[in-house]
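User: Reviewer 2 asked us to show a designed sequence for the structure in our supplementary figure. I'm pasting the structure tokens here. Could you produce the per-position amino acids so we can include them in the response letter?
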């Protein structure tokens, strides 16, 4: 009888140990998931801030395009040097989009697209016959810059 009680006690203690271990594991797993969700949210917020910075850069560069077009009646010859003469606080280039810099692309007599990149991806602003459009595209021409921000 004593052996039966001893083995029953050991069995009950074993079940309790397993149950406590399961509860502890659940608590740690839940905490880890919450930390992962918080980290993911922080990355999203940083990406959004980067995107806003790129949008502000493009929005500041559009008046240079508009002024050049108004003064010359055409965008022929519009490039980094011309853009800098209207808005010297912005770095301009041609070719690949770079964060913190405007890439001038697809210049025609009536259109141009300005592109930059952010942690969230590319952004563009296009001037096309007096209209300005925006997009999340690594556009090569004004016609490709669509979709809005």
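Assistant: Here is a per-position design you can include in the supplement:
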């Amino acid at each position: 009888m004593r052996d039966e009680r001893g083995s029953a006690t050991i069995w009950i203690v074993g079940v309790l140990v397993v149950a406590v271990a399961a509860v502890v594991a659940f608590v740690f797993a839940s905490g880890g998931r919450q930390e992962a969700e918080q980290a993911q949210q922080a990355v999203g917020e940083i990406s959004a801030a980067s995107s806003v910075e790129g949008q502000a850069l493009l929005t500041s560069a559009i008046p240079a395009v508009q002024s050049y077009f108004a003064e010359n009646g055409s965008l022929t010859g519009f490039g980094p040097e011309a853009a800098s003469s209207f808005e010297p606080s912005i770095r301009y280039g041609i070719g690949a989009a770079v964060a913190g810099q405007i890439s001038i692309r697809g210049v025609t007599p009536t259109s141009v697209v300005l592109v930059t990149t952010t942690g969230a991806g590319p952004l563009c602003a296009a001037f096309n016959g007096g209209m300005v459009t925006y997009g999340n595209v690594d556009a090569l021409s004004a016609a490709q810059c669509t979709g809005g921000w």
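For the response letter, you might also mention the following. The chain has a mean pLDDT of 82. Residues 2-144 form one domain.
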